[in-house]
Amino acid sequence: MLSNKIYIPKNKKKIRKKIFNIDTIVNFEKEIFNIYNQGKIKYPIHLTKGNEVQLSEIFKYIDKKDWVFTSWRNHAHALLHGLPKNKLKKQIITGKSMYVSSKKNNFFCSSIAGGVIPIALGAALALKKNKSKKKVWLFVGDMTSMMGVFYEAYNYSRNFNLPLEIVIEDNGQSVYTDTKKTWNIKKLKYPNDVFYYKFKLGYPHHGTGQWVSF
Amino acid sequence: MGEFLMTYFGEINKSMKFMAQKKKILFLGQSTEVPGNLIFKSLEGVKKQKKIEMPVFEETQMGISIGLALNGFIPVTCYPRFDFFILSLNQLVNHLDKFEKISSGEFKPFVIIRVLVGSKKPIDAGLQHTQNYHREIKSMLKYISVVNLKDKNQIFPEYKKALIKKRSTVFIEYSEKY
Predict the structure, then answer these.
(1) Could you read off the pLDDT of A124-142 as tens digits, one per residue?
(2) What is the pairing mode between strands A177-178 and A173-174?
(3) How far apart are CA A151 and CA B132, in angstroms?
(4) Which residues of chain B have pLDDT under 50?
(5) Distance CA B40, CA A65 (A)
(6) For residue A4, what pLDDT is reported?
(7) Residue B113 to residues A208, B52, B159, B168: CA-CA distances in angstroms?
(8) Each residue of A92-106: b (16+ CB within 10 Å) or e?
(9) What is the dihedral sign for C-alpha A73, A188, A148, A196?
(10) pLDDT tier at A16, thresholds 50, 70, 90
(11) Which of A160, B82, B105, B129 is deepest in the core (most CB within 10 A)?
(12) pTM for the full model?
């Protein structure tokens, strides 16, 4: 089913009706944008814009106690999964933007493409062994969804019926490398039991696109 | 009472059986459940439900170990050759080694890693099965300990120490000494 440009697999149920206004994400990223431009963050940042609606919709399927694993562009995911704004801001300012983490919120990121995939798989295996009702949510980009490690984890999780939900976030590129062009494909193919959405990133890959004196 | 003379293999097997007593310990890797290499032999006496036979996906195996550790398990992740183990380095070097630091101390996954150096005697297993990158691995890891198990007397105390201190450690074992 495609709605709001999101593909939602069959038989998925929403846990929450509303999380919060998407302006919270927009305003948070604007605040980080401004702090960065003042030269107060001497580390890489990866801001997000253009996928707030899709993410807000997808997080309605995610329980607060579930694990969420994602990548370097994670501020919106962190907010939607319940990380307090101040804690998130502190991690960003102290150089942890690419790997925002929270034990309390079961939230972890990696700045290596595909890095969280097998870790998420292991977390899902642990949940099954513990007979937990929680799930693991794994967010990957379009280029990462073409990596070998993605298919290893996908096959293993499905063959063992592990509680691993996958979301492919397709902005058509990795940094500025075109996914379809480099793989010589016309359309990205993805399994029909994963979430998928397309978006155009409203910020540069990293930084703010402005000259900043540090 | 005379001292029981333990062999290198005996010390390894004793260490594995000791660790297996812990409720949350799991042994992962190829030939943990079925014969095929010395990993299987080293786990003699360890209950089947403590073992997870893995497909051949070295990096994924290391990542699975980290994910299990994040949820309270103590994975003993086993690689029968150093040559195969190096395929897991993304998860070891970029993730497990840096996990505590990059997560601002939020997560401290504890994983025990076993790596066997392939033997050259009586049969030389060849260039792709007998390499020992012990020094290279040690230089690549900032926070994880590397223990080179050259001497049988080190084996049990070192495994026990890692388990008690809950410190992720790479143990290098030598097939020729088994």
Answers:
(1) 999 999 999 999 999 999 9
(2) antiparallel
(3) 30
(4) 1-2
(5) 37
(6) 58
(7) 41, 14, 10, 8
(8) bbeebbbbbbbeebb
(9) positive
(10) confident
(11) B82
(12) 0.96
Nearest CA in chain B to A121: B64
Whole-number pLDDT of residue B3: 53
Chain B residues close to A140, C-beta within 8 Å? none
Question: What pLDDT shows up at residue B27?
Answer: 98
Neighbours of A151 (CB within 10 A): 14
Query: Is the separation of the CB atoms in B67 and A126 below 8 Å?
Result: yes
Determine the distance in angstroms separating the CA of A95 from the nearest CA of chain B, rounded to an integer: 9
* Interatomic CA distance for residues A37 and A57, integer angstroms: 30
Q: How do residues B117-133 score in pLDDT, each as one tens digit?
A: 999 999 999 999 999 99
Distance CA B127, CA A166 (A): 39
* 8 Å CB contact of A153 and B60: yes
A177 CB-near residues (< 8 Å, 6+ apart): A143
- Chain B residues whose beta carbon lies within 8 Å of the beta carbon of residue A125: 64, 67-68
A149 touches chain B (CB under 8 A): yes
Whether the complex's predicted ipTM surpasses the cut of 0.90: yes
Where b means 16+ CB within 10 Å and e means fewer, B9-41 reads bebbbebbeebbeeeebbbbbbbbbeeebbbbe
